[in-house]
Amino acid sequence: MLVVCLDLEGVLMPEVWVNVAERTGIEGLRRTTRDEPDYDKLMRYRLDILDENGITIDDISAAIEGMDPLEGAVEFLDHLRSKWQVIILSDTFSQFAAPMMEKLGRPTILCHTLEVDEESRRVTGWTIRMEDQKRHAVEALRGLNFNVISSGDSYNDTSMLAASNAGILLNPPSNVVEEFPQYPVVNDYEQLLVEIEAAASNLHE
Fold first, then answer.
1. CA atoms 140, 143, 149, 153: torsion sign
2. Is 3.40.1180.10 the CATH classification of the domain at 16-65?
3. What are the backbone angles phi and psi of residue 170, rounded to the nearest 5°?
4. Which fold has domain 2-13+71-119+127-204?
5. Whether the Cβ atoms of residue 149 and residue 170 lie closer than 8 Å to each other
6. pLDDT digits (tens, 9 = 90+) for 115-146
7. pTM of the entire structure?
8. Residue tagged active-site, from 7, 153, 157, 195
9. Rounded to whole angstroms, how far apart are CA atoms 2 and 90?
10. Which is catalytic among the residues 9, 15, 153, 157?
11. What is residue 68's three-state secondary structure?
12. Is 7 tagged catalytic?
C-alpha cells in the first residue's frame, strides 16, 4: 500500500501569509518557511506583526476566502486520489485549513491550531499538534507498513521527505535546493506526477 503525503501551501494552495501581506500591505508577513527554517521563531514574528497592526483572525480569514487553489492543483489531487491514498501534512492551522480543504475537495489534512481571543478576535498564540509532525506522521505510516512518497517546497518539509521512501521538492527556493541536493526538483504537477509514478514503480520492484 502506498500513501502520498503533500505539503499544502506552495504545493496545492498559495501561501496564506503572503496573501495576507498583499491584502494589508504589510511586507513583513511575506516571510514564510521558505525563508525561515525555525517555525516557532517565524510564528512569534508573525504574531508580533499582527498585534502591532491590529490584524484579527477575521482579516486573515477574509484573505483565505479570496484564495483559489494553484492552477491545476485540484485536477492533480483528484488524479492522485484515484490511484493512491493522499494525506496533506501541513504546518498551517485548522482555522485556515477548513476553507482551503473545501476548495480542494476535502482531502485529509493533519495540521495545527491557532489560539484566538473570541472577544477581540486577536490571534494570541498557536498550539502545535506535535513537534516535527510531518516527519512523525510519515514514520507512523511506515510503521503501519505503508510505503510513503512525499512532496513539499520548504525547509519544514525536508524532514518529511527524509522519512519517506521517496521525497520530491516542488518549486523550492534556491536556498532549499542548495542545502538539500539529495532530493529531485520538479517545477510543475506533470513533472511531479512523473516522479511520483517512477518512485511508486521502484517500490514495487
1. positive
2. no
3. -110, 115
4. Rossmann fold (3.40.50)
5. no
6. 999 999 999 999 988 989 999 999 999 999 99
7. 0.91
8. 7
9. 19
10. 9
11. coil
12. yes
